Amino acid sequence: MTLHLVRHGRSLTDPTRPAAEWELDPAGFDDVWALRERLPSRASWFCSPAHVAQETAQLLTDSDVGIVDELAEHEPAERLLPAVRRILDVHGDDDVVPVGHATAWTLLVAELTGSEGDPLGMPDVVTVPSRLR
Description:
About 30% of the residues lie in helices and about 20% in strands. The protein is of the alpha/beta class. It has one domain (about 1-130): 3-Layer(aba) Sandwich (Rossmann fold), CATH 3.40.50.1240.
């Protein structure tokens, strides 16, 4: 089982709305579609409740995508890590693709590998073997 952490695509900034309601910038759709080559064809998919994460997941897969509140951008590590552990407990034999945010994935990569890794682009994917179980 491998964990493929996807950072959402570029968003359209709208200062009149909360960031969680921003939408993807259509000019960046090609960048999101390019990630398909780096992701498994069969996997269990999950995403943050933020619109940009949901839209990114929709561009990357035709599979069902579970929305997990704890994958939100500024969710504390003490909620993020147990949420990912629960996902892995249920889907431990599958590749898992959560779509979310750089801050959350930096915390997760540090937990999995002991280092922060390279900064994530927008969009981007980092693939790591899961050791959170």
